[in-house]
Design a protein that fits this description.
Number of domains of chain B: 3
Helix content of chain B: 40-55%
Helix content of chain A: 25-40%
Oligomer: heterodimer
CATH topology of chain A: Rossmann fold
Bound molecules: adenosine-5'-triphosphate, magnesium ion
Shape of chain B: globular
CATH architecture of chain A: 3-Layer(aba) Sandwich
Largest sheet of chain B: 13 strands, mixed
Shape of chain A: globular
Low-confidence stretches of chain A: none
CATH superfamily of chain A: P-loop containing nucleotide triphosphate hydrolases
Structural class of chain B: alpha+beta
Number of helices of chain A: 7
Radius of gyration of chain A: 18 Å
CATH class of chain A: Alpha Beta
Strand content of chain A: 25-35%
Mean pLDDT of chain A: 91
Low-confidence stretches of chain B: none
Radius of gyration of chain B: 34 Å
Largest sheet of chain A: 6 strands, mixed
Strand content of chain B: 15-25%
Mean pLDDT of chain B: 86
Number of strands of chain B: 24
Order of helices and strands of chain A: EEEHEEHEHHHEHEHEE
């Protein structure tokens, strides 16, 4: 078991009354799974993903990741856990505009205090795997959307995480580019055993996963295994 | 890590060219100002510190208070040095300087007049640290008629010849020739005395006189290490009673006890050598003294300039936070800790500071000659001579980098990644309050500076237009004593010149350097009421030449031999003596030496005129008929002065072959009295200009941000039909409000500060409301121009364009 969510609740207080963003979410994810999360806009998909990614806290419930109780960890330990095991991919790519492709991929490794020589090797390897060696000195603004997302995924993979969390990774891409990204995910999942949890609006993309979780108003509506 | 921080910092600087330049130029201006002021303060505080015994040397001064009139003399009587050395074992050494002005010195065919000449005791070079390059510091000045000279002096008179043993003559033949027995490099610039020639005191008869009534000797004592000079000072009152008392009784006609009973004080006061330059206020000091208050003011300006530049950085960084927030969010998602981000931002601010520092050093090199000229200084920025500057500046850079970068670093690095990535964070809105306060602070300082500059210049103009009670226009002062016995012929010629209205003979001048004579008198025969006045020796033309108004009585008549025991007094004197309009005909008594008395009759009373600078109140003045043909005060009729001066030169050169004509205009002498205020005013003006410039840079940056952020809003408003004026108003009004708040806070502060400054003048302008209005208007106008540039640009932008980019 990679991670487990037990009775997760999240709410905000708006004008005195409590609005639930997530209600009673229970979810267990095994190492090597490929999970898709679907649901209408505002149903809480991103919120759930941020909690899994430890960027956000829940108000109630328990979260176990790699046998550690996440909500009970100190900030330092949590950030350590997170740095080692989790990679994020965003709809808007979120590359750092001031850094080159190479440097963007290198950044998470710097924060893991990896030595310079080792870093070089890792980045070179990733650039090679993604076939973007020729683009390493370009800045994000010089790339197409698909290429940017490719770099985004490369960056998420650089630190060799156990799980990749992707929030509508193809949302800003045309269908051909989107398909390429999904194929890449599939390959990573199959060949490298990387766990993938993705949020998507497209049934087709969701079908790449082995399990689809449907959210409605912050609740798990249904879980479909394919 | 640091390398990658530097790289990112550099890219950010290059990418945001406008904001980076604003930050860099602002910081560079602030740092350059600060550096120049630091050099200046360092020099001023370092005065006389070159002496190894600097902390142990004190100067003996003579201070007192006679009937409310202050006496402040930096010189004391000839026997003081010897007496204190003999009577007090803690005085390890005593040495004296007798300033002898700039006599004409001759060597063979060479003659110059510009070298400062002093007689000093033979132990002088063992008290002050002025190493002899040639000669023996112990014996060089033991013999009479020996001199120690500076290298520059030697070069001028003897060229490349060995100066030792050379003979120098006095032109006027007062002294036998002097032999050079020692050579020093030069007197350091930051020494309170500046002489080219030091002559042996043993050749000066005056130095050996046991007189306790005349004081011409600057006297210095060396005290033991760690000895508090105040302890010695308390013992000095005995010296006054023992030595000065008896001679004073002869001179003033009253005993010390009577003198003290009248509420008067006289005494020897010690002054640490290192305090002479900044803390002394003596009319007859060896060099123009600095003023500790200006040091404080300049230090304050330096600090405020730096703060204002740092504020620009803080404001622009936090206002632009939304631009950096995304980066912060992503970095956190990628695993960065807050600490790492703080370091990254600090690296950035330090890099900007480093660039600014380099630029500032360039500025300083360019500005130093200008500043030196303006402030009559000798500053240099010399890295090879002052190696401490390198680590010093490095530390300085780090400090400013942190000062400017700390708040933005913590502010930016505390963004929550979720909020940022969801796009919830719109702008640096959280810090608007802080930003506004900082802008208020910047303009507060700017307004205070504008106001101060205005007040200084107004006071100067007040001085210029003040009715002085005498007429300073068209009056030329001529040192006729230079002509020797021909001076009387010269005077006759001037008196007969049709362009000359009148000529007076007196060395007592109402403006600029003048003779000065304390004069203790008693009204009537009442010898218990002793009043300190000044005695002006004048002739019968003095009052008409200077256009002084006679209120009652009459001027001197030359042909009345009895007028030699008549005096004319000013209104203040009449009041001090207790007389009203009936002064004429009354008498004054003064004591001569050996207990004799002399009685004067009041011939007339003149309206008060400002014979002292406007810093001081008009004091009692007694004018006696004692013409001094050595100084001529020439009043010209209206007409061409240039032509007159040419003919003056011809007349002069006919009467003397050696002495060049030197003259001065009375009005020039008057204005020169206020030179230090004039300079302070100019320097203040420049600094306030720079401060406003830096503050406006920041304002410009903020206005640019606002315009950028509200681009969409402005576009929509325009589509809905807003006018350009309306939109300019929309952006500018908030900034102008801040300036207004700054003005309201600044006004009482500025008023208080400038009132303090004006206290230095006994006669001063009143601070009126329009000075405030003027300062406010200047600040507003500058702010408005700065802001509206961006506002107008935003208002004129095509709304379709700005909306489409969304
Ligand atoms: N701080 C907040 N205050 C109030 N409501 C919030 C807050 N944060 C999120 N929400 C609400 O929570 C709900 C879930 O948001 P979330 O971003 O998870 O939706 P989503 O399923 O990802 O939608 P989309 O498909 O549009 O991205 C939304 O209705 C949103 O308005
Ligand atoms: Mg979402």
């Amino acid at each position: 078991m990679l991670l487990q969510l037990n009775k997760i609740f999240k709410w905000v207080n708006v004008g005195g009354s409590r609005t639930f963003l997530l209600r009673d979410i229970n979810l267990t994810v095994q190492q090597g799974e490929f999970i898709s999360i679907m649901g209408p806009s505002g149903s809480g998909k991103s919120t759930l993903l941020h909690i899994i990614g430890m960027l956000d806290d829940a108000d109630e419930g328990e979260y176990v990741f790699a046998d550690q109780n996440v909500f009970k960890l100190k900030e330092k330990q949590r950030s350590q856990l997170y740095k080692q095991h989790i990679g994020f991919v965003f709809q808007a790519y979120h590359l750092i505009d001031e850094l080159t492709v190479y440097e963007n991929i290198e950044t998470p490794l710097i924060y893991q205090d990896m030595k310079g020589s080792e870093r070089k090797a890792v980045v070179a390897d990733i650039l090679d795997r993604f076939g973007i060696v020729g683009k390493k000195d370009l800045f994000p603004s010089q790339l197409s959307g698909g290429q940017q997302q490719l770099v985004g995924i490369a960056r998420a993979l650089a630190s060799n995480p156990k799980v990749i969390l992707a929030d509508e990774p193809t949302g800003n891409l045309n269908s051909k580019q989107g398909e390429e990204i999904m194929e890449l995910f599939k390959k990573l999942n199959k060949e490298d055993g990387v766990t993938i949890i993705q949020v998507t609006h497209s049934e087709k993309n969701a079908s790449y996963g082995s399990r689809t979780i449907h959210l409605l108003d912050g609740r798990v509506d249904q879980i479909v295994n394919s | 890590m640091i390398l990658s921080y530097l790289q990112i910092a550099w890219r950010n600087i290059v990418k945001n060219k406008l904001y980076s330049s604003i930050n860099i130029v602002g910081l560079a201006t602030g740092i350059a100002t600060c550096l120049i002021i630091m050099l200046f303060v360092n020099q001023e505080l370092g005065y006389d510190r070159y002496n190894e015994k600097a902390d142990r040397i004190v100067r003996v001064t003579f201070q007192g208070n006679v009937q409310g009139e202050k006496m402040n003399e930096s010189t004391v009587m000839p026997p003081v040095a010897q007496t204190l050395k003999a009577d007090f074992p803690e005085v390890e050494a005593a040495t004296r300087i007798r300033d002898y002005g700039k006599p004409n010195l001759i060597y063979k065919d060479k003659s110059f007049k510009e070298d400062a000449f002093a007689f000093v005791d033979s132990n002088f070079f063992r008290v002050f640290t002025l190493p002899l390059i040639a000669g023996n510091s112990k014996t060089a000045l033991v013999e009479p008629n020996t001199i120690v000279i500076t290298k520059a002096f030697a070069k001028k008179y003897f060229g490349n010849d060995d100066p030792m043993g050379k003979i120098i003559n006095f032109q006027d033949g007062n002294f036998s020739p002097f032999k050079v027995t020692g050579l020093i490099d030069r007197v350091p610039v930051n020494s309170h005395f500046q002489f080219e020639v030091f002559a042996s005191m043993s050749g000066l008869p005056e130095a050996a006189k046991p007189s306790w009534t005349s004081s011409n000797f600057y006297t210095y004592l060396v005290l033991p290490v760690g000895y508090d000079y105040k302890r010695l000072e308390t013992k000095l009152s005995k010296v006054v009673e023992k030595y000065i008392g008896p001679q004073m009784q002869q001179a003033l006609g009253m005993t010390m006890a009577q003198f003290k009973a009248g509420g008067n004080r006289l005494g020897l006061v010690l002054q640490p050598l290192t305090a002479i330059h900044l803390h002394a206020d003596f009319a007859n000091d060896l060099s123009p003294s600095g003023d500790i208050r200006y040091i404080y003011i300049f230090c304050a300006i330096a600090i405020f300039m730096l703060l204002i530049a740092c504020i620009n950085f803080i404001n622009l960084s936090t206002a632009g936070a939304s631009k950096r927030a995304r980066e912060v969010g992503i970095r956190k998602v990628l695993g960065s800790s807050k600490t790492e981000l703080v370091w990254q931002f600090l690296t950035e601010s330090t890099l900007i500071t480093a660039i600014a520092l380099l630029m500032a050093i360039g500025f300083v090199y360019l500005a130093i000659p200008f500043f030196n000229q303006l402030a009559s200084q000798n500053l240099t920025l010399n890295f090879t001579e002052n190696l401490f500057l390198v680590p010093g500046l490095f530390l300085f850079m780090l400090t400013i980098g942190i000062l400017a970068g700390a708040y933005p670093a913590f502010f930016l690095s505390s963004f929550k990644p979720v909020a940022v990535l969801k796009g919830k964070l719109t702008s640096g809105n959280q810090s608007v309050g802080i930003r506004s306060s900082l802008v208020v602070f910047q303009f507060l300082i700017s307004i205070i500076l504008i106001f101060s500059t205005t007040v200084v210049f107004n006071q100067l103009s007040y001085i210029q237009h003040k009715k002085l009670g005498y007429d300073k226009e068209q009056v030329i002062i001529l040192p006729a004593y230079l002509l020797g016995k021909n001076s009387e012929i010269f005077r006759q010629q001037l008196q007969n010149d049709p362009r000359v209205s009148n000529v007076s003979r007196s060395g007592f001048l109402p403006a600029g350097p003048s003779n000065n004579n304390n004069f203790f008198v008693s009204p009537g025969n009442n010898s218990t009421q002793l009043i300190k006045t000044l005695r002006y020796d004048v002739d019968e033309n003095y009052i008409p030449v200077l256009g002084i108004k006679i209120l009652s009585g009459r001027n001197f008549f030359t042909d009345f031999s009895s007028d030699s025991s008549g005096v004319i007094i000013n209104e203040t004197a009449a009041r001090a003596f207790g007389w009203k309009n009936n002064a004429t005909g009354k008498t004054l008594t003064t004591s001569l030496n050996k207990g004799e008395k002399k009685t004067y009759t009041i011939l007339g009373v003149v309206k008060d005129f400002h014979f002292k600078s406007l810093h001081e109140r008009i004091s009692p003045l007694v004018m006696v008929l004692a013409p001094d043909p050595g100084m001529l005060i020439v009043k010209l009729k209206p007409g061409d002065t240039g032509e007159f001066l040419t003919s003056l030169k011809t007349k002069w050169t006919k009467l003397t072959a050696e002495e060049p004509l030197s003259y001065s205009f009375l009005d020039d002498r008057y204005y020169r009295t206020y030179e230090s205020e004039q300079k302070a005013g100019q320097i203040l003006g420049i600094f306030s200009g720079l401060t406003i410039f830096v503050a406006c840079l920041g304002l410009f940056g903020l206005a640019t941000f606002t315009a950028e952020q509200r681009k969409k809003e402005i576009g929509i408003r325009k589509v809905l039909g807003a006018s350009i004026a309306g939109i300019v108003n929309l952006i500018s009004i908030d900034f102008l409000k801040l300036v207004l708040v700054a003005f309201i806070i600044a006004s009482p502060l500025a008023w208080y500060i400038m009132n303090q400054w004006l206290e230095n003048f006994a006669y001063r302008m009143v601070i009126s409301w329009w000075l405030f209005a003027w300062s406010a208007a200047v600040a507003m106008l500058i702010a408005l121009i700065t802001v509206s540039f961006q506002a107008i640009k935003a208002a004129l932008a095509n709304p379709v364009k700005s909306l489409r980019t969304e």
